[in-house]
């Protein structure tokens, strides 16, 4: 419950403060969102599996976002553009799907 | 499974990384942490509560989502705005270009009038003659109109782009224009665009450019010339070729006589390398009209 409230508080804070993202960071935003989604669904699934761990959640979130950003940056520098980040999206997407499927099994037994 | 891993030490990726990814999407760290907790005997947290650091991270997550949402929403109208702005700019520039070319036309007329007033008499007449034959002056007269049009396009899109209807290409227009010159034409215009001695007819992508201005079908090549021009043109290579092409592919090609054509003047001709020769040739004006011009493609008299 507290977690959901915290998430809502974050959303409201973001909408209220309405910060402008520096142009240099803009390409990283979509990938960061995907990485964060992966961390969230991983955390929820772990919770339902009763193996949730605070430290693991925090570390996985931060490292996911950082690695994703690093890969986008690397792709830019190497000149392969969006192709490396496609890889990130595919891997994280697969993980999100798998975790959501597990959550679904937990919640609906189906 | 987690026990296995913790005993084996550092977790090694199996060669089939993707299979592993599909089968077990959860971060293995959770399992490891749970095993560690089981060893130490600490109970897992109950319910939905999380520690303070976790809370901060969750707030951060929400913040990130909101910012990303805002960002995407903010970019969308920007893109649309840029697009419509560009369209508006194009329209405005086109309007400006039109206005300026009308103004240029007016000024050219004015210059001509002034020049005639200043020169007066035979010299002005000679200048007019030269302008008419080089394409810088508007001309009237009887002549021939050659009409070319693309074959009517039946089915398109699904038929594939390369199998489209037969089209008039720039080479057709070139050969028609050249053969009209050959048949004695003194002035030629394609879709109202006067040809001069330095005119180009070329293609750029799908478009045909006459003097770097696009012309679109149906094409109308008007030529002013002496009486028998049509017969001579009909016997020329391009007419025969085009008739054959038209029969085979469905292009339309027609030649007809036309009375009282008016061909516009070409835009200012700019010579970059040639310079007018000094005085003697100018002073010997009189006898034959267009011998000195050099740019006149067919120095035959009459038909004006």
From TrEMBL, chain A:
Q: Where in the cell is it found?
A: Cell membrane
Keyword Methyltransferase recorded? no
- Residues in coiled coil: none
Q: Where are the transmembrane segments?
A: 27-44, 56-74, 80-103
**Do you know which InterPro entries this protein is assigned to?**
DUF1290 (IPR009709)
List the record's Gene Ontology CC terms alphabetically.
plasma membrane
* Membrane topology listed for this record: Multi-pass membrane protein
Q: What is its main location?
A: membrane
**Which key words tag this protein in UniProt?**
Cell membrane, Membrane, Transmembrane, Transmembrane helix
Name the family. Belongs to the sbp family.
**What is the protein name given in its UniProt record?**
Small basic family protein
Give the originating organism.
Verrucosispora sioxanthis
From TrEMBL, chain B:
GO CC: one term? plasma membrane
Q: Which UniProt keywords apply?
A: Coiled coil, Membrane, Transmembrane, Transmembrane helix
**InterPro entries registered for this protein in UniProt:** DUF881 (IPR010273)
Q: Where are the transmembrane segments?
A: 50-69
Renumbered to this chain, region (Disordered) spans 274-304
Source organism = Micromonospora sediminimaris
- Write one Pfam family the protein is assigned to: DUF881
Q: Which family does it belong to?
A: Belongs to the UPF0749 family.
- Compositionally skewed regions (Low complexity) per UniProt: 279-304
- State the protein's name: Membrane protein
């Amino acid at each position: 419950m507290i977690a959901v409230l915290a998430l809502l508080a974050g959303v409201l804070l973001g909408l209220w403060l309405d910060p402008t993202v520096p142009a240099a960071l803009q390409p990283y935003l979509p990938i960061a969102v995907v990485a964060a989604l992966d961390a969230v669904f991983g955390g929820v699934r772990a919770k339902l599996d009763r193996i949730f761990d605070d430290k693991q959640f925090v570390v996985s979130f931060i490292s996911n976002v950082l690695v994703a950003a690093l890969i986008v940056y690397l792709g830019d520098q190497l000149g392969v553009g969006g192709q490396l980040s496609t890889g990130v999206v595919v891997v994280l997407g697969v993980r999100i799907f798998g975790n959501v499927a597990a959550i679904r099994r937990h919640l609906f037994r189906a | 499974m987690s026990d296995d891993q913790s005993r084996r030490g550092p977790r090694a990726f199996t060669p089939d990384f993707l299979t592993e990814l599909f089968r077990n999407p959860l971060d293995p760290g959770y399992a490891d942490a749970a095993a560690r907790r089981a060893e130490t005997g600490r109970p897992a947290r109950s319910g939905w509560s999380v520690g303070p650091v976790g809370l901060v991270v969750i707030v951060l997550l929400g913040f990130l989502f909101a910012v990303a949402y805002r960002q995407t929403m903010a970019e969308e109208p920007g893109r649309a705005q840029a697009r419509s702005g560009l369209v508006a700019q194009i329209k405005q520039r086109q309007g400006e270009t039109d206005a300026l070319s009308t103004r240029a036309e007016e000024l050219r007329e004015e210059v001509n009038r002034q020049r005639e007033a200043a020169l007066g008499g035979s010299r002005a007449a000679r200048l007019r003659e030269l302008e008419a034959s080089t394409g810088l002056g508007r001309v009237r007269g009887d002549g021939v109109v050659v009409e070319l049009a693309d074959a009517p396009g039946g089915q398109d899109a699904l038929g594939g782009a390369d199998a489209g209807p037969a089209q008039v290409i720039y080479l057709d227009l070139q050969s028609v224009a050249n053969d009209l010159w050959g048949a004695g034409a003194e002035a030629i215009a394609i879709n109202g665009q006067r040809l001069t001695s330095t005119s180009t007819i070329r293609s750029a992508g799908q478009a045909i450019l006459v003097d770097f201005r696009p012309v679109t079908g149906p094409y109308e090549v008007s030529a002013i010339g002496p009486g028998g021009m049509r017969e001579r043109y009909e016997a020329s290579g391009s007419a025969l070729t085009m008739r054959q092409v038209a029969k085979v592919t469905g292009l339309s090609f027609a030649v007809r006589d036309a009375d009282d054509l008016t061909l516009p003047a070409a835009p200012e001709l700019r010579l970059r390398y040639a310079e007018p020769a000094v005085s003697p040739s100018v002073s010997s004006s009189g006898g034959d009209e267009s011998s000195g011009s050099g740019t006149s493609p067919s120095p035959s008299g009459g038909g004006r």
